[in-house]
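TA notes, week 10

Several of you asked for a full example with nothing omitted. So below is the full record: structure tokens for the whole chain, then the designed sequence directly under it. When grading your own attempts, check the secondary structure regions first.
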């Protein structure tokens, strides 16, 4: 393997997350649930580990947040490091903020 194991584990995690997000079956199900009036919250966590010659490489973990709300159909992804950063500065990135009209 030419790539570093850490890079391969990160790539595996990314491919799994992208596969879930682009799944036609998942999109259809989410659309059906949304039509019923529900907001959807999905947190996908991937943990990837490699071991060679009885030597384990530190586990790679990543969380992908997918949120779909209301009729807008908004999707966004936040990595675990993003979530940790927001938490440190006191921001909840998944909290709905009330709309304020400009005067």
């Amino acid at each position: 393997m030419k790539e570093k194991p850490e890079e391969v584990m990160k790539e595996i995690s990314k491919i799994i997350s992208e596969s879930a997000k682009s799944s036609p079956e998942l999109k259809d199900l989410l659309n059906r649930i949304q039509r019923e009036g529900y907001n959807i919250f999905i947190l996908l966590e991937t943990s990837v580990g490699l071991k060679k010659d009885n030597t384990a490489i530190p586990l790679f973990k990543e969380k992908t947040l997918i949120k779909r709300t209301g009729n807008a159909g908004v999707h966004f992804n936040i990595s675990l490091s993003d979530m940790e950063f927001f938490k440190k500065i006191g921001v909840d990135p998944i909290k709905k903020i009330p709309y304020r009209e400009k005067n």
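The chain has a mean pLDDT of 78. Use that as a sanity check on your answer.
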